[in-house]
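hey so i finally got around to running the thing on that chain from the lab meeting. sorry it took forever, my laptop kept dying and i had to restart like 3 times. anyway pasting the input first so we r on the same page abt which one it is
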Amino acid sequence: MSKHLQRDVQQLHRRLMNLFAIVEKMIDNSARALCEKRVELATEVIETDKVVNATEVEIEEECLKILALHQPVATDLRRLTTVLKINVELERMADLACNIAERAESIHRHPYFPVPDELPEMVRQATKMIRMSLDSFVESDSMLAKQVIYFDDAVDQNNQIIIRELRELMKQDSELVEPALHCFSASRHIERVADLAENIAEDVIYLVEGDIVRHKHGNFDDRENIENA
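ok and heres what got predicted. didnt touch it at all, straight out
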């Protein structure tokens, strides 16, 4: 890697890390707005989305500029391709954070609605997946990325539990149907956030190992070691 390419890639990484931090905070604030019914945090999340959208475009433009100027090959090309893909996933996460915030604002109008106990744990799991995917990218750690992929099962299980609880609530009290539907949507958005963290982990595995692992998670040779790590 030439000095000029190295400098440009390092600057690109710094911008991507900054975007990671912004999006992680958006997810955290939208979840707190939902679970703690703090509507002011929901407003903050929605306003921050403009910053994410602008940053996402800037990072993409910088990636394309580096590709055109330096014409990287092999590992360098794979790294820039991975940055482009992660950049898109983060922007999608920010959109989901806004969706969660909007659902939180709607639930706020129903102060007696009982948010399922499993929801905060589901949020914690999804947030952990985001941090792990970031760490795996920074450290080029494909084993950690594979842990992110397997951790997604716990999020899916909690989502199913929450959906069942919400269905029971709606059967028991028709006045809870509207807020329960908003909570149902929020739970699905959180589950989707975890899916995007999983996508980032897949991108990291491609970066480190050169393998495209989408739809092939069960074929990891070191599955037992990954799950016990």
